[in-house]
Predict the 3D structure of the following.
Amino acid sequence: MIWRLVAAATVFVALTGFSFEQRHSLAITKVSLIDATGKPAQSNMTVVVTGDRISAIGKTGKVKLPANPEIVDGSGKFLIPGLWDSHLHLTIATDQAGTTELLAPMLVAYGVTTVREMGGDWQRIQQLRKAIADGQIVGPRIFAPGPFVDGPQPADVNFLPVGNEAEARQAVRKLKADGVDFIKIQANLSPETWRAIVDESQKAGIPVVGHIPETVSAFDVARSAQRSVEHISPVIPGDAGIMLACSSRETELRAELAAIKKAAEDKNANRQQLRLRQRDLQRAMAASYDAKKCETLFALFVKHQIHVVPTAIFGKRFAPLDERDLPNDDSLNLIPASMRARWDKRRAEVVKASSPDDFAFRQMLFAKSRDLISAMIRAKVPLLTGTDALDGYVLPGASLHDELGLLVESGMMPMAALQSATRDAAKFMGKLDSVGTIESGKIADLILLDADPLQFIENTRRIHAVILGGKLISSSQLQTMKTKMETYAKEH
């Protein structure tokens, strides 16, 4: 694996065409400051960066500047903290194209300075983190769990399967010893193995996050020590734990879900019949939505501060909602041609096989997921912003801005949406003392925008410059990065 990282770093140096040499000090002047603490935008501010830290903040002209700082004129611009993607994968779905190390700078180019990597090859993640820390590759800060902990299946670098309570507890102890940042659980755990993982994680003093197992009610998760719930999309039955818990027919539908899974284990099973049963199950979940039951569930999430990461953009991109449902900006051009070709082929097959009813069905399910997000916002459930990149047109970096837009469309105020991708994400990871807001003494992960994101959340896309650990990446350098990544993508 080491040679792949070295090769990727070499390619990236050629790809970007510039270095990230550390300036001693930097002063962003005359800028409108949105510090993500909840304060309104503060105009005509100066933010001083010394080394990798914010060293001073105040009104322009009243802040003492260090000797010979690099001055960035922030007139007419807005400064926000670097963004977090709280759910993506850097080592799965990329092996065939070999793009893991080359997509890291794509995240930074779109203002994502920290990620919660949610499961994969722990060795590769450690190598990538070291390469970033050593300056070989430009990339975000990475928090990761190593392999998924899931039910019985063939083991590989991405999965750590467990079949009983003893194996579940041993998995937690092993991952803790390996130095992971948290434990990530998947949907195929049994109630016994799920409870053992949550209990052992508490004893080990390491957070446990992840899916709602298909055999466990979201109400049980809400009363447990599991710290987050990932995904809410009823488009994917394994991600429909919240929708299922909000059904007035939960017990009956849960039994049908189990029956479908059991039937799918038969190699001779009629796959078309199983797909029809699955669709009937999804329709029944949506039709039996019980708002009062959901309010009770969300009140438990609030009480126990269980965070939800909706990954709404993945629910939208997982299967096309209509024939033209594709990202409409230039970010798709940065994806290597080999990967894009696989996506295009798969999407074309789905579109060709989809009837008008199929499109309408997926649109209905996506609308239901949006309704769930709206209900969680009204209930004040703590939400984090994640995308589930990289697969199926969910693009690293760019899709985070799509997710912010979907949250605002669902009823979240722009400030709250911005905080879900900055302050709240840092607080969830226990890192608010060093990142997540713009305050003196914190690491200088910053984004300079050309327009106000509190007026229109879409303005988070209008990135003028990124400051990563105190290092300025100017607008011209960002464009150089994108141009050369696009050239590389066409050739690979």
